[in-house]
Amino acid sequence: MRTVGRCLFTAIVCALVLSCAGTPEEPAPPPAAPPPPASAVQSPAPAPVFDPSMISAEVKRDTMEEVKAFIDEVNQVIRRKDYSAWKGYLTPDYSAFYSAPEVLAEMSESAVLKRQGVKLSSLQDYFLYVVYPSRQSVRVDDIEFTSPLQVKAVTITPSGDRQVYYYLEKVGDSWKIGTGR
Asked: Is 126 within 8 Å of 107 (Cβ atoms)?
C-alpha cells in the first residue's frame, strides 16, 4: 500500500506540476507615455502681421512713382486694345482667376454686359468687354501697401471716395497686376 500511496502522491504532484506548466506569460509592455498637455504642444509661430505704417515716406514716394509709371504704360496698352501686351502685365494668378469659367459666367451677369448681350468666355473677352471700357485712363492718386511687395492703386473720386482700380504685386524688379487675394 505504501507503494500505491507513493505512486498516487507522485501522480498528484506530477499532475499539479503539469497543470501549471506552459509557456510563461510575456511581460506586459510598459504603458505608453501620456500625450503632452495641450499647453505644452508647440504650434508654429504666427507670421508677423504686416504694418503699413512701417513703410518709410521715402519708400512710399518711390513706390508711388513706380506705380504711376506702370499704370501709365498699362493705360497705353489698353487704349491700343493690345491684348497680347496686356497679358504681359498680369500675374499668373490674375490670368487664371479671370479665365475661370465660373468667374466669367458670374461677370457676364452684370447689368452692363447683359444689356449688351455679351457672354464672357475667355480672358480675352474679359479684356475687350470689361478692362478696355473701364481702365483706359486710370489715374493713381494714392497707394496703400498691403504687404512689402503688394499695393492697392487708389483713385480718389470727386466725392472723396477711394476706389481701388488695381492690386499690384512686385515680381522681381517690375510690377504686375494681381488679384489682391
From this structure: yes
Q: What is the pLDDT of residues 10-66, one digit of tens each?
A: 444 344 344 444 444 555 555 555 555 655 556 666 666 777 778 899 999 999 999
Cβ neighbours of 74 (radius 10 Å): 23
The Cα 123–Cα 83 span in angstroms is: 9
Please provide the average confidence, as pLDDT, over all residues in the chain. Answer: 82
Residue 161 identity (one-letter amino acid): D
> Residue 65: left (phi > 0), alpha (psi -120 to 50), or beta?
alpha
Nearest-CA neighbor of 143 among 134, 156, 153, 135? 153
Distance of CA 9 to the CA centre of its chain: 84
Pick the CATH number of 54-178 from 3.10.620, 3.30.1540, 3.10.450, 1.10.3470: 3.10.450
Rounded Cα–Cα distance for residues 12 and 179 (Å)? 91
Distance in angstroms (rounded) separating the CA atoms of residues 106 and 62: 37
Q: Where are the domains of the chain?
A: 54-178
